[in-house]
Write a structure and sequence with these properties.
Layout lengths: L2 E8 L3 H10 L6 E4 L16 E2 L10 H20 L3 E2 L3 E5 L2 H16 L6 E4 H7 L9 E5 L3 E3 L3 H12 L3 E3 L6 E4 L4 E4 L5 E9 L5 H7 L10 E8 L10 E4 L9 E4 L5 E4 L3 E2 L10 H14 L8 E9 L8 E5 L4 E5 L5 H16 L31 H6 L6 E3 L4 E2 H8 L8 H8 L12 H16 L1
Parallel strand pairs: 1-2, 1-12, 2-9, 5-14, 12-20
Antiparallel strand pairs: 3-8, 4-8, 5-7, 6-7, 10-11, 11-12, 13-16, 13-17, 13-18, 15-16, 19-20, 21-22
Helix pairs in contact: 1-5, 1-8, 2-8
The structure holds flavin-adenine dinucleotide (FAD).
Length: 462
């Protein structure tokens, strides 16, 4: 016999997770289905984690509206969830007359579209405030409201709150078949599990087209766009502590150099259309482009040691806007093509989805009493448990250092393993705690972390 739900959300990326969290405010039976063993393991794990206020999205698009709203919600709701943010601001630099003309035009457009806290700075002021940039900057667009945030804890916080408020989270649960029934859909996975839902929301990210194909829709084609990165070690931040872009060209937004919320400096992403949506390889050509970006913008970073290199995959389609398509006659809602702004847009997208679903499909108000959650603040500016005498006095496990590079204690790893949404893989544990993310990449602590992970799993499975 299959389990009956009111709503099934397919995909626990940042978008599906935000939707599930908002749905948890309604008195409905909701299930969040994730193909991988853990949440946020596809597009949502490989982004720049810039929470953008939206002026660099196309004017008049749905993407613009939802990113603007997502940013506003994040500013209010992230602190309640314990999620860290830093308003470093962003700067777009012009070194040539042609670039100057583009920057001046972009500033004027931003003002015309209501983004008043965007400014044109002359080159001498840029050089005075940010001496790290390659000499000869003519002018820049300065956007002080741009923010860096935590890419991994954000979807985790959304899922944790959803689950705390009654959403069922099933993983791994890859929807491999969908059949219509009298009330909605019967969904199946390849293990033979079955469940039914009155409404299905497809938030399948880079695989949303495959999910659409299960029910016979083909309104868009996935055009995966890979983005490669170099992550520099933490001393780089003493040189560079602002989100910096080159002037965009019609072909590309360019490679940015930005601090991360964890204290490193990120260089990337490249933008390459690839055939294989799982090809997250790092290439020689890509690395050369990233190195060139360092030389072009902040040459003083040239000799900084590299922490790691990796690539993410943008779930872009053949359309330039988000693909949010209500098909309520079929009890289906498509939430796809969340290209390169989904981290910023997720809460705006979730709110928009609620406005589509209620009261059109379910005549409900968000009346449920919900419990808020807080996730650990893993940012470089937070007081780590090892440095908090009160925390250590309550539990000495917070003084027992496990990952020396990132200064993560046994207590924090234990807490992550005891979460109501425990990490299902070592990589997921890494994203929840930052253990093994440091200079040694787990060389010293990896074995001990693995033992803790295995023991917790045995306990959970018993
Ligand atoms: C290089 C790069 C840089 C970026 N920089 C930024 C940035 O700075 N700021 C910003 O706002 N955004 C940024 N983005 C965009 C952002 O990361 C994406 O828009 C966002 O992650 C998309 O989230 P999603 O939930 O739609 O997709 P995903 O994270 O891919 O989630 C979809 C989920 O659906 C699951 N799924 C798929 N098929 C099935 C199935 N059949 N059954 C069950 N589950 C299924 C997948 O396993 C996956 O977990 C960037 C992206 C990239 C790649």
């Amino acid at each position: 016999m299959s389990v009956q739900f009111d709503i099934a959300v397919i995909g626990a990326g940042v978008v599906g997770s935000a939707i599930a969290r908002d749905l948890s405010r309604y008195d409905l039976k909701v299930v969040l289905l994730e193909a991988n063993t853990d949440l946020g393991d596809e597009s949502s794990k490989g982004n720049s984690a810039l929470m953008t206020e939206g002026h660099d999205t196309p004017a008049g698009s749905l993407e613009r509206d939802l990113v603007v709203r997502g940013y506003q919600r994040y500013m209010t709701e992230a602190p309640q969830l314990g999620l860290p943010m830093r308003k470093t601001g962003a700067i777009m630099l012009a070194w040539t007359d042609e670039q100057r003309a583009t920057v001046e035009k972009l500033v004027e457009e931003a003002h015309g579209e209501g983004f008043h806290n965007v400014h044109l700075l002359e080159g001498d002021e840029v050089a005075r405030r940010w001496p790290q940039f390659r000499p000869g900057v003519l002018c820049a667009q300065w956007m002080p409201d741009e923010i860096i945030a935590d890419p991994f804890s954000t979807p985790y916080a959304y899922v944790l709150e959803a689950v705390t408020n009654g959403v069922t989270f099933l993983r791994p649960w890859r929807v491999s078949r969908a059949e219509r029934n009298a009330h909605g859909w019967r969904l199946r996975n390849d293990r033979g599990d079955v469940l039914e839902a009155g409404l299905v929301i497809n938030a399948g990210g880079i695989r949303a087209d495959i999910v659409e194909g299960l029910v016979g829709h083909s309104d868009f084609v996935m055009r995966p766009r890979r983005g490669q990165y170099i992550l520099l070690d933490k001393p780089a931040r003493a040189i560079h502590d602002i989100i910096a872009y080159p002037t965009p060209t019609p072909a590309s937004r360019g490679i940015l150099i930005s601090p991360t919320i964890f204290g490193n400096v990120l260089v990337g992403p490249t933008a390459e259309e690839v055939e294989d949506r799982d090809d997250r390889g790092v290439t020689e050509v890509g690395l050369r482009a990233l190195r060139q970006a360092i030389d072009d913008m902040v040459p003083a970073l040239r000799d900084m040691p590299v922490n790691t290199i990796y690539a993410g995959m943008r779930p872009a389609t053949n359309h330039s806007d988000y693909q949010i398509i209500p098909r309520f006659g079929e009890r289906w809602l498509t939430v796809a093509g969340i290209r390169s702004t989904g981290f910023s847009g997720a809460l705006g997208i979730a709110e928009y989805v609620m406005s589509l679903v209620f009261p059109k499909v379910f005549d409900k108000q968000p009346t449920k009493t919900v419990r808020g959650v807080r996730v650990p603040d893993l940012s470089e500016t937070s007081i780590r448990p090892w440095a908090d005498p009160e925390k250590i006095a309550t539990d000495p496990a917070y003084a027992d250092m496990l990952c020396h590079c990132e200064r993560i204690s046994v207590g924090e790893v234990r807490d992550a393993l005891n979460s109501p949404v425990p990490p299902a893989s070592i990589k997921a544990l890494k994203r929840r705690t930052r253990a093994m993310f440091g200079r040694c990449q787990g060389f010293y602590c990896g074995a001990r972390v693995q033992v803790m992970f295995d023991e917790a799993k045995v306990k959970r499975d018993a």
